[in-house]
Amino acid sequence: MTSRVIAIDGPSGAGKSSVSKRVGAELGFLHVDSGALYRIMTWQCLAHDIDTADPEAVAAFAGQVAVDCEPRGGAVAYFVNGQEPGNAIRTPEINRHASPVATVKAVRDRVTAWLRDMTRFGNLIVEGRDITTAVFPESPARFYLVASAEARAERRRLEEIEKGIADQSAEEVKRSLLARDAIDSTRKHAPLRKADGALEIDSTRMTLDEVVEAVLAALPQDWKEVLQ
Ligand code: DC
Question: Which of 78, 93, 184 to mutate to test the pocket of ligand 1 (most atoms within 8 A of CB)?
């Protein structure tokens, strides 16, 4: 049987991760964080002294990054040279460099190929910026999650506090998030945008439970008959 893919796009802090993890757990779909793959690319560029502002240097390096993927605990886990990157890919430095790295077509092609290959693991819920438009545009379950910039920045800040990696003020978090949104939605290759046919959910005034319910309720009828 071919795998089913739920695709979720949206700007930083719109709630994609929390929603995808919950919906994935509910349905037994593996959670796939595509942003982490762009972060790994960025982390590896920095570790090898590649200038992230030089798209040609980044493109030439992209093919050398090897990531092993393995289903684990309801998600697809990533390994670079046998190690999980952990919080090394969640630093403000990586936040700053990830958007320029993600503009490079060779990087996007490589990450897209890794993501498509993951369907061999079974049913997936994949979150990112171009999942509904470019990676899995044929999926009948595509969502565009949005929220106000204030709500998104506040969620990101709380997440960083929870992970013990917070070292920025609320204003700095908002500024860095808006800077990334601007690059992500104006880049030439696979920019962030709402796909035709994707269901837009504005989570500004919704609880996590409500968003999860909205996603589950909007799944294709023939999936619901098998899955729920
Ligand atoms: O979701 P995130 O903050 O972990 O994403 C990190 C960066 O990768 C961000 O600048 C957007 C980019 N990205 C992308 O271009 N396409 C995706 N499918 C996922 C993330």
Answer: 184
